[in-house]
User: Fold this.
Amino acid sequence: MKFRKGQKVIMTENALENYGERYRDVIFKIESCAHSYMPAKEFYESGMPEGYHPGYDDSIKGQGLYDLVNFNFSLYDYELKST
Assistant:
């Protein structure tokens, strides 16, 4: 994974194409980092364990999936860059 919990990031051009220009230069803080898939039921019943996410795509090995503070979507490494 490229980023860590608590780190501040902004969206890449790729992410802006998907989520909109209103997020250009908006600084987000990483709330959680995932590197493995876990089915939603198990994920929530287990208390949302760190490192797992029901939306993680196992075909994207080596990429982290991040939840951001005050943002309702999860983003991968290639959609974020350091501030």
Notes: The chain has a mean pLDDT of 95. The longest helix spans residues 13-19. The chain has one domain: 8-82. The CA atoms of residues 14 and 70 lie 20 Å apart.
